[in-house]
Specification:
Layout (H helix, E strand, L loop, with lengths): L4 H36 L4 H42 L13 H10 L14
Helix pairs in contact: 1-2
Length: 123
């Protein structure tokens, strides 16, 4: 059955909501376990919330640093590519280039021009 754009968008939203609900439930149960662990060890309740807060902070930090490493790598590769194209006398330096006047003279020597030669003063 063919779905419209609206139906597909609604389905994606529904799937995302289910995923978020599952993640939130898992984090909440983990938080409750940490708090009960802290209470059983005669610690204040807020000490039980520290592992979850640390996990969230660590996750955000890892995502940020991972993005930074990725962007830095791309910039370094771009810089190397640009530097490689700007270097003079590299592998594709002037050794393979022929001046246009040299090319014309070489072509004339090998008989590639069929027109008879006329000196500049004779028209």
């Amino acid at each position: 059955m063919h779905q419209t754009k609206e139906e597909r968008a609604w389905q994606r939203g529904y799937s995302l909501a289910r995923f978020w609900k599952k993640i939130r439930k898992e984090l909440s149960s983990l938080d409750n376990r940490c708090v009960s662990f802290a209470i059983n060890r005669n610690m204040p309740k807020w000490v039980g919330h520290i592992p979850i807060a640390g996990l969230l902070i660590l996750s955000v930090t890892a995502i940020t640093l991972g993005g930074f490493v990725f962007v830095s790598s791309v910039l370094i590769l771009w810089g190397l590519a640009i530097a490689g194209s700007l270097v003079k006398g590299g592998v594709s330096g002037t050794t393979g280039k022929i001046d246009s006047s040299d090319y014309i003279m070489e072509s004339a020597r090998h008989g590639q021009y069929d027109a008879p030669y006329q000196p500049p003063g004779e028209d």
